[in-house]
Amino acid sequence: MSEHEYTHGRVVWRDLMTRDAAKARAFYSGLFGWTYEELVLETGDDYTLIKLDGKALGGLWQIPQGNPAPSLWMSYVSVPDVDAAARLAGELGGKVVHGPKEFPNLGRFVVLADSAGALIIAFRALRGDPPLEEPRPGAFCWETLGTPDEARAKAFYGKLFGWKVMKAGGGERSVFTTDGTPRGQLADLQDSQREYTPAWLTLVRVERLGPALDRVSELGGQTPVPLIAAPGLGRVAVISDPAGGHLCLLEPARK
Prior knowledge:
Layout: E1 11-18, H1 21-32, E2 35-40, E3 46-52, E4 55-62, E5 72-78, H2 82-91, E6 95-103, E7 107-113, E8 119-125, E9 140-147, H3 150-161, E10 164-168, E11 173-177, E12 185-191, E13 199-205, H4 209-218, E14 222-230, E15 234-240, E16 246-252
């Protein structure tokens, strides 16, 4: 039996691949109060650890010169076997984009594209997953999948990660859950058929959406979608940082 604790099926980490690390650090520090720790991994890669109140939340990478990839936030889902997840993704109509590969002394990961092309990372940490906690302002708290085919996405992630689907917000939204209960909720699905490229977006909790969006503008960011009402969840806005990375702000519904 492992001495480490795991929360398989949960989103346990987020990374930003960015075209301008300096701009991204300044933006998110000003918006969320994040601080940073610069690391050099055993691979020789530079990596910026994102912290809130001294606790690590995720990381930030500079996209190398000459690489045309856009700035992008990526979510890591805990799995018991990364290589098995990679094989299964292919069998389910997805594909392996990068890996499987080791993060020296940290764990093993693989970047996957689902059956519609949305990217997500399957991850197995060496020393267990972070404990589940109530997200505080400035912390990651939820994920949203924009997809043109909800039925196919439900089948893909149900088999890949063991996720189940339930209705939330008075039956208006489909939500992924690890165990079929509200306690296990972790993400919702949105129809992106006509508007957006299929993609996962990560959400960060804020106290109030209005002041946060004002701050986004002051810091040089943009707000492609200023307000989405998510019944049972709260109010959401899609923002982009000055280097083009997109994520969402969530003002939770008042209890």
